[in-house]
Structure formats: structure tokens, C-alpha cells
Amino acid sequence: MNAELRAAAKPVRRAVQAAVLGASFPDAEPAAGGGGESRGLRAGLARATEIHDLSNGVRFAVDGNKVGIERGHRLAQLTDTETAPRWRHPVRGRRDRKWRTQIGRPWFFVTIRGGRPKFEAGVERGMAKTARRIEG
User: Fold this and answer.
1) Running along the chain, 136 residues long, what does each successive block of 10 average in pLDDT?
2) Are 131 and 119 in contact (CB under 8 A)?
């Protein structure tokens, strides 16, 4: 059954990657002097999104080591509003503004939940395959 679930998880993983690539994490204090140029956060999160096989299904995770040297998996948690509505971080190269607060947007969990029909179909295919094997 895991093979069917993993097959169902692949398009959901692509959807999660597309969701984070299209996400916007605006500055919570726009009057304080807008955000700088992107340092590849969204691309790093997309690249680091993985599927892990479990004995009873699959698990989606963001591998902190693949996000970037200074970011880690904690930043993935901070960018999704279901786990944290905003996060603060130091701003490099800005002496006038040492910290920045950004607002997270839902991209991880909401997208995975949207894949529920794919997972249900995968379970049904796995059950049918098992039933055929048992029935011979």
C-alpha cells in the first residue's frame, strides 16, 4: 500500500513546492523601508520539501540542511501561518534597520490537506491490490 501512497504523494509534493514558490512573505512594517532582495528562501524551501516513507503511510517534511546554511527547518515552520503568523530576523547590510518582521502565509499544511483525494485514491488502489493478492 505504501507504493500507492508514495505515488499519490508525488503530485502533492509538487503542489507544495509550487505553493511556496508562489508565496509572499511581506514585511509586517512596510513603512519601515520595504524588504530587500530575495536570498532564495522560497526556492530553498521548495528544494528541501521531501516525502518520507513510514510503515503506515508517508510524511512530508522540510529538510533544514537543504534549505540553506543559516535557515534550517525552523524557518519553514515560521513561514507557514498555521505554525507561526510572523517571524523576526536580523537584516544584513542595513545599519539603519537591524531587525525585520515578516508575515507568514499558508503554503505547507493547507496544500497537503488539498491532496486528500489523491491519498484516498491511493489507499483504495492499495486495498484493491491487496484484495486481489489474497483472492488469488
Assistant:
1) 87 95 80 59 89 91 78 67 75 73 86 93 91 91
2) no
